[in-house]
Amino acid sequence: MSRRFEDPLNLTRRRFLGAAGLGIGAAALAELLQVDLLGQGPDGVSASATGGLPGLPHFAPKAKRVIYMFQSGAPSQLDLFDYKPQLARAQGTDLPESIRNGQRLTAMTAGQASFPIAQSIFKFAQHGQSGAWLSELLPYTAKVADDLCFIKSMHTEQINHDPAVTFAQTGFQLSGRPSLGAWVSYGLGTVNQDLPAFVVMITGNGQSLAERQWGTGFIPSRYQGVKLRSVGDPVLYVSDPAGFDKAQRERFISDLGKLNQLEFEATNNPEIATRIAQYEMAFRMQASVPELTDLSKEAEHTFELYGPDSRKPGTYAANCLLARRLAERGVRFIQLYHRAWDHHSGLPKAIRTACAQADQPSAALVQDLKERGLLDETLVIWAGEFGRTVYSQGKLTADDYGRDHHPRAFTIWMAGGGVKPGFTLGETDDYGYNITQDPVHIHDLNATILRCLGIDHRRLTYKNQGRQFRLTDTAGRVVQKALTFEAGSGA
Amino acid sequence: MSRFSGRLSSAGLAGWLSAFAMLCAILARVTQAASQGAPAPAPDSLPATIEFNRDIRPILSDKCFQCHGPASQMATLRLDLEDGAKHALSGGRFAVVPGDPAKSQMITRVAAVNPIVRMPRAQGGTAAGEPLTERQVALLTRWIEQGAKWQKHWSFIPPQRPDLPKGLKNAKWVRNPIDDFVLQRLEREGLTPSPEADRATLLRRVSLDLTGLPPAPGEVDAFLADKSPNAYEKIVDRLLRSPRYGERMAFPWLDAARYADSNGYQTDGERFMWRWRDWVIAAFNRNMPYDQFTIEQLAGDLLPNATLDQKIATGFNRNHRGNSEGGIVPEEYAAEYVVDRVDTTSTVFLGLTLGCARCHNHRFDPVTQKEFYQLFAYFNNVPEHGKFRRVGNSAPYIAAPLPDAQAKLEQLDEDLAAADAAYAKLQPDLARAQREWERSLDASAPVSWAPVRELVTLYSFDTDLTPQVAVLQDAKDSRARVNAPRGGKDAAGRTAPTLAPGRIGQAASFDGKSFIQFDGDIAGFDSYGSGRGALGANDPTVTFDDAYTMAAWIYPTAPSGAIVTRDEDVFEPNGHGLNLRDGRIEYDVVTKWVDEGIRLRTQKAIGLNQWHHVALTYDGSRWANGVKIYIDGEDQKLEIFVDDFNSQGAVRREPLRIGAGGGPENRFRGSIDDVRIYKRALSQAEAGMLADLTSVTAIAALPEDKRTPAQADKIRDYFLEHALPAPIAAARTRLTDARVKRDGFYQSLPTVMVMEDMPTPRETHLLVRGMYDKPGEIVTPALPAALASSPNTFPPNRLGLARWIVDPSNPLTARVTVNRFWQMYFGTGIVKTAEDFGSQGELPSHPELLDWLATEFVRTGWDVKALQKTIVMSATYRQASRLSPELQAKDPDNRLLARGPNVRLSADIVRDQALAIAGLLTEKIGGPSVKPYQPEGLWNEVGGGSAYVQDHGENLYRRSLYTFWRRSIPPPSMANFDASARENHMVRPVVTNTPLQALDLMNDVAYVEAARVFAQRIVKEGGKTPPERIGYAFRVATARRPKPAEAEILLNAFRQNEDRFTSKPEAALKYVSAGEYPRDNGVDVIELAAYTSVTSLILNLHETVMKE
């Protein structure tokens, strides 16, 4: 990873020495520092983190962080990844009942009299050494195909957006559970003291999202995703009021610290020390957030790599570039949402637009991370909440069709820390409707993400309402076949 | 991190503080860890007598019940019941042999060294799990030695009023029985209570606790000066009488009741539940007994002669989220709502987390899955639809007028009844007059007639294709024209319809390409708007919520085609459309093809090449059962395809088309005549009149008993409209006016969603694995056996359930309630897990105190204010909160209560207090929710729905419980300070400490403005000199005077900022211009800016955001 920041370990030691005179349970502290801060993780990765759980990571991590490019609205796997030339013969005919097999439909097509097969109108070709089939809509993704691990056999339990996004992100379809990013920052803590451990960025104007999808449910709210915004303050309230300058703020923080210190002497409440520290971090964020979002020092070829949109704040391309900058700064969990993929009707036109926004920047991020030596230690995920139906929703014409929600089979890709590059896992039937090989459930995906970070998904738990909860509920199996390493027994 | 901490270090203290902070944070974790799992003492420190509930059940529940408990009995072993544990296992072994640990498999297995033999296994698996601690094994062993006695779970045993402890050493400290119990425990632990807090601190504490607001400086002075022995009690009584008390108590209740101003889920549109919220405030202020408070919220509608207020109260169980997403299966979410009611009701009132029993028997508590669905059955009888409206309230809801409006409504109802009676009295005269008039008619001059009231358009086609009547939305609309090509073809190749012989006079004739399009906006009858008033208060638009009628004579020559539409002209259009489809009359009113709207068709088909009259009426209810189609005046049986209405999106305006709409393939072939649109639903009689062309004069010529009902109605209506004698006409006008007035007013009333029961109960099934589409056995309402005393005589409906919940025999309700109030004062409940009094919950720190409070609560008739008073009058509550090193070591979480509470203010109080300190707070109770400052664009970032339109003026300064709460994106300054998103019930708040809170308090315009207005205040009322004013500011915020060291820091800060702003006056002006509250021009800008920087510092103090 980037070495532009001082090794926090040294800092910790220095602070420890500086604090030794305080007389605060020094022995207990020494013991804790031993365990928590000086203690090396299996490969040393965890050593620099603060605030994680003791005993984590459980295994040597392959990835230090995650960039999750969530394609909200559910991209059509049939028009992007899951090539089905066999459909040409079936074009316009009704989906056989043997394939549909009584599957639950959304109320949107439940009333439809027929289910005409709609083959993708887009051309597919093989790319890279790995020969991955990709649609012509993804020319940039095609170029990095050999870095990607495609899973064509994803499935989920939810058939409507809100519950499905909530399910993918929290492991449960109703609100109230912690999100993936919250679990990770709760378990592993943070590396960068000046930025939140879990950052969320949103683009597009499709399906609505909700804060709960990056919330903490029943675990403490400090682990929640912090939105990095393109309108107004990048992080809420990070800018000082107009007319109040940096020097004044620095003095303000210092005065406040002194006053709070006096209060500590009067009450002995240890919470005051935390408050002082939080104001200091707030102050550091006030500097580090503008530095983070200031793209002026990015090279010209970087903008070219990510495409013209990357110069426009608030675009998916700009967010992909920001994701790389966050990764460089050690942010643990970077969650992008691009709301662009809910193509019930007029799919050919709409998906062209969505791909024009998403293809180049997504691929650029992979390439950029790789060139900077960050891909190996960063797990990148590109996924929506479910797939789309092989049959047309609404009228099927020669050049137009729509596709309804399809939870039974869809494609995602992953790249980087721990997953096999240039690899495709899973297959679907001739209709792209049912999985025929290596099914991967959302819980399996989440278990795998955690495993790449060195976490046993069964052992990262939080007790709530009398029960130990975990991200993967009572399920989840690590997808060994997609990994470059041995996940271990029972996982 | 280095750069800035380095700079801070140069500022002096900061580097040291950072180090200190980090150490403390770590220390806090150490202590937290310690308090979670007590260090294992040597076995010889085991209690002499093992008590099952205290010592054994927690071990079994945590380690064993998962597999050997209520839900699962592996190896036939069930350890939560005595029988289940003591019976013979396979191989003749016994898990528990009383008195003989050596023969007890339980001990053998938990103490085993071999991990293959040892219990417990890993969670849900067969791998070896974490072994029990030495102490746990020792406890189990001794318990078996002592006879292995079981107890019912403590909270399921009804509380008995305990005797007060005797022989306390420090008895003079005691002020009321709370203190007896607390002191007993402290003395047992070798601790002494803290001294009483100083008066200013105590006043601030109790003011924040009882009203959520700090004391005014004058109140502090008065209290400090009051030397009477009951000075404190007088304060408490005053605070309990304050209207702010009800607001304060309401906020945690809104959290518990998952109250919000939006529906949740994807679109998360607005709903209106504020009448329920205001009911809660009023109930607390009136000190409604808690049993009544409970009964009315759970079942107020079922009380005999339920009042409006009692019905409003039931909004409690309609506060859950409602899904309006396209494509959901309504039955799935209808089940979720009921689950939510069971879950919320059981957690809030019973302190039980029954949600687990939805899918399987509860793993830890003795509640079976069947019992869960028996509770479900109580709440499963609401006439609701699983798909909520995107915007607005979803059925069932009621008009909920405020008292003034209620009085006015009653008056209007009376006026209407009087007008009705007066008109009814004139009916014999009317009948006589009509007969006389009929006799006077000249049969040789036929009179045709059809209803004209609220007729907004009429095409007779007798002279041309233009409308004879066209009531325009905007009379100035220059686009109001018929868009039919005059002769020849238009650019699209369409020919104009031609005129042909009609049913009456002439008709328009269509060739399958031609159609008529009227681009003027006829009565706005086309809106896709999001509900009534989408275009403003006086919106004349006909929306999906308004009634209307479309009618025409048709002579089709082909079986399918559009008749009259305001549909998009595309295949599968959105909009309103009356079509002929395969000979049947089809009506679609669609907001989103294909799943949202109403789509239906007559069963009967009409014949081609003949005239038929068709009329469609829609009552504005958004339900298919509000639609009627008449063919030739006869009400038709309908086949319903979609009945799932949700308005959405912006207002769009499709033109009125005759013979078209729904795309080129949907053109009409044949003739259409006498097209009428009314802005109301015609009655069946009126539809009959349109279909029967007999002239009025011809009807008059028929004997009365030979007239069809349609004819009788027609002649009567004609008479009413044209020939009614003046006195009767006046009475009729009076009646019409009274009805219009009453209905108009009724429509303007706020509504609130409520609970109702359908007359015939819905069948409830156990849902296999909790799945809505896997119904199992049928169940009926019943109480959980483990909790209900038998025989139970409560009726099997919600009212019975509610009465049982507050019955003194109920072991939980009073305990759970007093515990939650206790938590409000001390930060932690006597039972820490306020949401879970079950087997996995924590044991009470002071069981006897809990039971004393619970029984006292019931004894006083569930008197909430009396309970609050008892708590805040106790010596326990009045202690200083300073944490001594001894207490830090022994009881960092203050569970033993050797000191007063020291907890951060909740999100709402952080903000309300700042408003109060600044002098900005608007003290107004109730009303619709308000939208104070919020960073721009927040709502748009995450999703659809409307933009956030910020309020102005006093609505910026209302208390936080009136802030508009949108679930998908709650108010950020509330969320930052750990407020509930209101997605689910929350009865135990979590308090965190984050940098986002610091940023919020420093930079949120609400707090910058508060600091500035606070500065204006201190300049005005805080004395003359900077030290005086700063001292005053400090005192307003903390109720105490600053110490010299504090005063010095603040004064230096003032001087330095003053210097800074003097050199940058334009910056000063910017700084004091934050917010919309007017700046006091009488105060120098530089001075005001410098004071603002200091008041901001004071608002950010740890002490300010704490209750100490």
Descriptive notes:
The complex is a heterodimer of chains A (491) and B (1108). The radius of gyration of chain A is 24 Å and the shape is globular. Chain A has 491 residues and is α/β, with parallel strands linked by helices. The model of chain A is unreliable at 1-47 (pLDDT under 50). Chain A has one domain: Alkaline Phosphatase, subunit A, CATH 3.40.720. In chain A, the strands form five sheets. In chain A, strands 1, 4, 5, 6, 7, 8, 11, 12 and 15 form a nine-stranded mixed beta sheet that branches. In chain A, strands 2-3 form a two-stranded antiparallel sheet. Chain A has a two-stranded antiparallel ribbon with strand order 9-10. Chain A has 15 helices and 17 strands. Chain A has helices spanning 8-19, 26-38, 77-80, 87-90, 97-100, 107-110, 139-143, 161-170, 180-188, 246-267, 271-293, 300-306, 316-328, 347-371, 442-452; strands at residues 65-72, 124-127, 132-135, 148-155, 198-204, 226-227, 333-339, 378-383, 387-392, 403-406, 410-416, 423-425, 427-428, 435-437, 440-441, 461-464, 467-470. With 1108 residues, chain B is of the alpha+beta class. In chain B, strands 2, 3, 4, 5, 7, 12, 13, 14 and 17 form a nine-stranded antiparallel beta sheet that branches. Chains A and B meet through helix 1, helix 2, helix 6, strand 6 and helix 10 of A and helix 1, helix 2, strand 15, helix 32 and helix 33 of B.
* Alpha-beta content class of chain A: alpha/beta
List the chains of the largest interface with their residue counts: A-B, 115 and 140 residues
Mean pLDDT of chain A: 86
Low-confidence sequence ranges of chain B: 1-43, 476-480, 527-539
CATH topology title of chain A: Alkaline Phosphatase, subunit A
State the total count of DSSP E strands of chain B.
22
**Helix- and strand-based class of chain B?**
alpha+beta
**Cα-atom Rg of chain B, whole angstroms?**
37 Å
Strand fraction band of chain B? 5-15%
Query: Which regions of chain A are unreliable across 5 or more consecutive residues at pLDDT < 50?
Result: 1-47
How would you describe the oligomerization state of the chains in this entry? heterodimer
Our estimate of the beta-strand percent of chain A is 15-25%
